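Researcher: I'm preparing a figure for a lab meeting and need a structural model of a single chain. I don't have an experimental structure, so a prediction will have to do for now. The sequence is pasted below. Please return the structure as tokens so I can convert it later.
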Amino acid sequence: AGPFDSVDALARRAQLERRDLEALAAANALAALAGHRRDALWQAVAAAPERDLLAAAPIDETEQPALGAPSEADDILADYHTIGLTLNRHPVALLRPALRAQRLSSAAELRDRPDGRLARACGLVIARQMPGTAKGVMFMTLEDETGCVNVIVRPELLARQRRETLDSRLLAASGVWQVVSDVRHLVAQHFEDLTPLLGGLRTSSREFH
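Model: Understood. Here is the structure written out token by token.
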């Protein structure tokens, strides 16, 4: 039968319901057939109208309304809402100009920083760990568009900034850069919760205790 050449062909041959097509469109999985997810959603509705009281109503064949081009941030937000990740640029990349203005370094910029220097980093909190053998020390991982920064959180900082430590999704960390052999850490001295910069973006982290 050959490859699918339209959303309508996909719906007919795969016998997909409207909700299936809408889920695929929202996840940007129909880009090859319909372009942007907004166009794909319109085509999904047309290809598989809902079987309800309106199913017998006449269909308006006029062109779909022209929609403004979505921003890169819109696309990233939609990706995270539907599949929990994005194949576009990392969210922190969009914030880099604002972070640079606050003198927050990227993970790549910190790799060659000498041991013992003051450092500031910012990223999505993707992991928090507090092993039972660590005597109250927590280990965090911040991810940005260039890589990850491992952060050591001592008990006194956790006690002082518990909310920022445990609740932040986008976190700025200031402290001392520590290099031991090939292992690099930021020993945190202060945190700032920058989660509001993410707007409606919802991210998650792995929590190990």
